[in-house]
Amino acid sequence: MQYALHNSYVLKGTAQILQQSDVSARRCRVEASDATIVYVDFNRIILSSGKKSVSDVLGYVDYTVQSLRNKEMFHSMQLSFEQCWNFMLWLDQSNFFGIRGKLPKGIDKTVTSIAAGNTTLRQSQARSEDVGEFSDLADWTDPCDTHIINEVICKACNHCRDLDLCKDKQLALKDGIPVWLCAQCYVAYDNEEIEMRMIDVLQHKVMSYVLQDLRCVRCNEIKRENLAEFCTYAGNFVPLISGKEIETLLNTFNNVASYHKMQLLQQTVLQALKTPR
C-alpha cells in the first residue's frame, strides 16, 4: 500500500503531462485560425476571434469545434460553445467584464472622456500619495494573495474544476461554517477533504523548500559543490524557492483556515511559521 501511495504522485504527474499536451494541441489549432488565446485551462478556452459580429463568431466557433472533433485525439472530448461578448476586458478569472452589444446613447462620449482623463487622474493620485508617477509603487498589484486547488471534483455531479480559495464567488454557510459550492449544481464541497488537500500541498511545498537546490544569480546554473561559496562565474548562490514565497503561502493558508474554521490546517500552518527560515 505504501508503494502504491508513493507512486500516486507519479501517476498524477503523468496524467497532467497528457492533459497539458492536449491543451497545447488545442491552443495550436486555435491559434492557427488567427484567433488570440485570452485564457485556457483544462476546462475552458477563452479566445478573441477578431470577428466583428456575433453571427460571424458563432460560425467561427462551430467550424473550430467541428475541426477539433475530427482529430482522433479529441474524439472523446466534449466541446461546446457557452458565451460570447462583443467587448471584454480581462485581468484574471475573478476580474473581467463584458460590454453589451447595444449601449445607451451617449455612452461613447462618457467612455472617451474618462479615457482622456486617465493620465491626469494617475498624476493626481501619485502626487497625493507622494509617489513618483513612474515609480514601482504607483503600479497596480493584486491586493489578494490566493492559492488554487486543482481538479476539485463535486461528489454530486462529478463536475471537476480548479478552486480559487480566496476569490471564488460560490460560497455559502453550512452549520455556521463557510463552504465552497460546485459551480454547476451548487452542492457544497467537503471542507475536510479540501483541508486535507491543503495540508498535503503545504507539506510538499515546505519539503521542497527545505531540500531545494541553489542557483547562481549570474548564470542560473545549479550549485554542484556543497562547500563552494561562489559560482565559477563569481556569482552568489540563491535558493530556487524564496522564503518570501513560502511565507506568502503560509499566511494565505492561515487566513483561509481561520475563515473556514479548519483547525488542523491552522495548527499545521502555525507550526510551520514558528520554524526558522
Automatic annotation (TrEMBL):
The keyword Transit peptide does not apply. GO terms for molecular function: 4 iron, 4 sulfur cluster binding; DNA binding; DNA-directed DNA polymerase activity; single-stranded DNA 3'-5' DNA exonuclease activity; zinc ion binding. Signal peptide: none annotated. It catalyses: DNA(n) + a 2'-deoxyribonucleoside 5'-triphosphate = DNA(n+1) + diphosphate. One of its GO terms (cellular component) is epsilon DNA polymerase complex. GO terms for biological process: base-excision repair, gap-filling; DNA replication proofreading; leading strand elongation; mitotic cell cycle; nucleotide-excision repair, DNA gap filling. Its cofactor is [4Fe-4S] cluster. Residues 211-266 form the DNA polymerase-epsilon zinc finger domain. It is found in: Nucleus. It comes from the Eukaryota. Its EC number is 2.7.7.7. Keywords: 4Fe-4S, DNA replication, DNA-binding, DNA-directed DNA polymerase, Iron, Iron-sulfur, Metal-binding, Nucleotidyltransferase, Nucleus, Transferase, Zinc, Zinc-finger. Residues 33-99 form the DNA polymerase epsilon catalytic subunit A C-terminal domain. Belongs to the DNA polymerase type-B family. DNA polymerase II participates in chromosomal DNA replication. This is DNA polymerase epsilon catalytic subunit. It comes from Drosophila grimshawi. The lineage of its organism: Eukaryota, Metazoa, Ecdysozoa, Arthropoda, Hexapoda. The gene is Dgri\GH19664.
